[in-house]
Every structure is written in C-alpha cells, then in structure tokens.
Design a protein that fits this description.
CATH superfamily: Class II aldolase/adducin N-terminal domain
Shape: globular
Order of helices and strands: HEEEEHEHEEHEEHH
Distance between the termini: 25 Å
Bound molecules: zinc ion
CATH architecture: 3-Layer(aba) Sandwich
Radius of gyration: 17 Å
Number of helices: 6
C-alpha cells in the first residue's frame, strides 16, 4: 500500500471513530483526541472541532517531531502528548478521552486498582498522572512516567489516555478503562473492594497468552 493510500485510510478510520466518541460517553463536544501512526508520520484530529461533524479531509498529518506536513486545521493541542507516546512506546494509535468515570476517579485516587481481571489489558493497575496544564510538556512527561509498563494512564483533573496496536485496539481499551472505573466506583458503594493480587493478575496474563497461541494454531 502506498504511503498516500495508508494516510488516507488512517484519516477515514479516525473520522469513523470520532463519530463514536460522544455516543460512547468518552468525550463531549470537541474534547479528547485520537491519532494513528503511519510509518514516520502521525495523523491526528484537529483542535476545537466538534467530533460529530469531523471529516477525513480535516485530519492533520505531522512528522514524529511535530512538523505540520498536511494540516488543513490546527492539530490537536495534545499533539506533544501523542508524539511523546509514539516516540517511547510501540503504540500504533493513541486515544485521549475526557470520560466522566476516569475524571471522577482522577480527582480522588492515585490509581485504578485491579477490581476485575480485564485490567490486564492495561498492563495492570492504572496510575493517575499528576496534574499539569493541557498541551504542556509537563503533562506529556507525567503521562509517560505513569505509562511505564502500562498501555493506559489516567490524567488528574483531566481524563485518560490509552494506546494500542491499532486504532480499534486503543479505542476498545479506552471503553474498557471507563467501564473498569465505573465498576470500581460501584464496588465502593458496597464497601471495601477485594483487589486482585499480582499473582492472580500474572496467572490471567499467562492464560491469555496461552489462549492466543491456541487461536493461531487453529487457523
Ligand atoms: Zn484533554
């Protein structure tokens, strides 16, 4: 596939997922942002436009160092955060949300503990990165530190960020993270939740790897 075709399909995929953001409760209005890596380039949503109306042609293409290569609109103000994640992880896509459950958790807790084994999708309990202004280098640094060994982080008084091997993978993780935060809040209504141990989480990860290996063999 030519780079031009790859960039176009990334733009179209981003536009499709933008349509889902509000309906899935992950962001309101123009909040939050999504990006996809295509080789040494990143396609990212523009700043300040309503997600329900974003089109493929309005997505911005930048280099990994942030140079605008094709930007009909201003790229998202969280571009430095997205680029920092691409430069330091194996991420192929990044999803940044302002979903209610994670924001509520971020202002009262230091991490989302392992209340359900599905948290292994995040790499373990999800840390809350200390507050720093949106779009700042300080925020990118705090999030990178919280992402150590994880594929998701919660941003204090702000939202959450997830990455994945594809946009679908990163987006599904963002939906799951919001669900896990909700489960934790609900569990706390009943009392002190039982938290899964490191050994129990390791057992789940090992079994997940074993089942994936089985899937490949059956093909
Ligand atoms: Zn944000």
């Amino acid at each position: 596939m030519s780079i031009r075709t790859e960039l176009q399909s990334a733009r179209e995929e981003l536009a499709r997922y933008c349509q889902r953001l509000a309906a899935d409760g992950l962001a309101v209005g123009a909040a939050g942002n999504l990006s996809v890596r295509v080789g040494s380039r990143v396609v990212i949503t523009p700043s300040g436009l309503d997600y329900g109306e974003l089109t493929a042609g309005e997505m911005c293409v930048v280099s990994l160092s942030g140079d605008e290569l094709d930007a009909p609109e201003a790229p998202s103000s969280e571009l430095p955060l997205h680029l920092a994640i691409y430069r330091t992880t194996e991420a192929a896509a990044v999803v940044h949300t302002h979903s209610a459950e994670v924001v509520a958790l971020s202002v009262t807790r230091a991490e989302l503990p392992a209340v359900h084994y599905a948290i292994t999708s995040m790499g373990g309990p999800v840390r809350v990165a200390a507050y720093a202004r949106f779009g700042s280098a300080g925020l990118a640094a705090a999030v990178l530190s919280a992402l150590d060994g994880r594929r998701a982080a919660i941003l204090q008084n702000h939202g959450a960020v997830c990455y994945g091997a594809s946009l679908a993978d990163a987006y599904d993780r963002a939906v799951l993270l919001e669900w896990l935060a909700r489960v934790y809040r609900l569990a706390r209504c009943y009392g002190a939740p039982r938290i899964l141990t490191d050994a129990e989480l390791a057992e789940v990860s090992a079994e997940t790897r074993r089942l994936r290996y089985g899937e490949r063999r059956r093909r």
